[in-house]
Design goal:
elongated, 9% strand, five-stranded mixed sheet, alpha+beta, 288 residues, 63% helix, Glutaredoxin, disordered N terminus
């Protein structure tokens, strides 16, 4: 199976830190409740009810002095055995990851057609490839730029892979301007030519820089200027944003391979992509 540890975007890291803080708080509360319940004279009878109810009932039967004594015991136990926090935290994180994985599978299945088989989506690599990789990206995203060489290598090294690009301009107005030019370039059958230059561009991605690149790669500029303002481009931008929302994707880049997800652009992105592609080839994919 592919690796489970993924490098994530800043927002994903922040969310994980918040989740860990919550886990630690819940752990402390749970341990305190357990000690209170264990020392209650009525614990045998209360064991028949739920743990939270038992802890609450037991707590109400103690005097302030008894509560202070119990709190001191709990604190002492935790100070002597701090590793219990890690054990419970790891167990809860593992459970949360499994829950998130199941949610992702359900969301991917519900959106499989527009995700993997949208006829309007730009495609590179083998159009009839046996495994599809989907990338959500923003032209002003530094991580997207960093990850592009690995995406290009995957396409070059695997003649059977199909890569679908989904424009998700979330960082600035210029990001959407560049995305609109990219979609219009796809209408002329020159998406890859434009995309490979635009994603490698080191300046600010916006309409001006995108138009210069479009002209450089030989696009019909008169047609392009009309297409970027067309309802078709509006619809594509709107469709991808809704798709990202449905999949709970709020950062770029984000890769989908079968029912697997790679948020961000880890240092070993190429290896992770290859591993996930190999897994999908081996195990099959009912939704893609």
């Amino acid at each position: 199976m592919s690796q489970t540890t993924r490098s994530e975007t800043f927002s994903a890291h922040a969310a994980r830190r918040s989740a860990k803080t919550t886990v630690l708080a819940l752990t402390a509360a749970a341990l305190a409740g357990a000690f209170v319940w264990a020392m209650s004279p009525a614990r045998a009878e209360e064991a028949k009810s739920t743990a939270p109810a038992a802890a609450a009932a037991a707590s109400s039967s103690f005097s302030d002095a008894q509560k202070s004594e119990i709190e001191a015991i709990v604190k002492g136990y935790l100070l002597k055995n701090p590793e219990i926090f890690l054990e419970i935290q790891n167990a809860l994180e593992e459970r949360m990851e499994k829950i998130q994985a199941e949610k992702l599978k359900a969301a991917l299945a519900a959106n499989a057609d527009v995700l993997f088989r949208d006829p309007n989506a730009p495609v590179s690599g083998n159009p009839k490839g046996d495994v599809t990789v989907v990338e959500f990206f923003d032209y002003n995203c530094g991580y997207c730029k960093r990850g592009f060489p690995d995406v290009a290598k995957l396409i070059e090294q695997d003649p059977k892979v199909r890569v679908v690009f989904r424009e998700l301009p979330i960082l600035s107005k210029g990001s959407e301007e560049a995305a609109r030019v990219a979609i219009a370039a796809n209408m002329q059958g020159k998406y890859w030519e434009f995309h490979s230059h635009m994603i490698a561009f080191r300046g600010q991605a916006n309409e001006a820089s995108a138009m210069k690149i479009a002209e450089k790669v030989g696009l019909d500029m008169e047609r392009l200027k009309k297409d970027v303002k067309s309802p078709a481009v509006d619809a594509e931008i709107k469709s991808v944003r809704k798709l990202a929302q449905d999949l709970n994707i709020n950062g770029t880049p984000h890769f989908i391979v079968g029912n697997r997800s790679i948020p961000g652009a880890p240092q070993d992105l190429l290896e992770q992509l290859k591993s996930d592609v190999a897994d999908v080839r081996k195990e099959g994919c009912t939704i893609c």
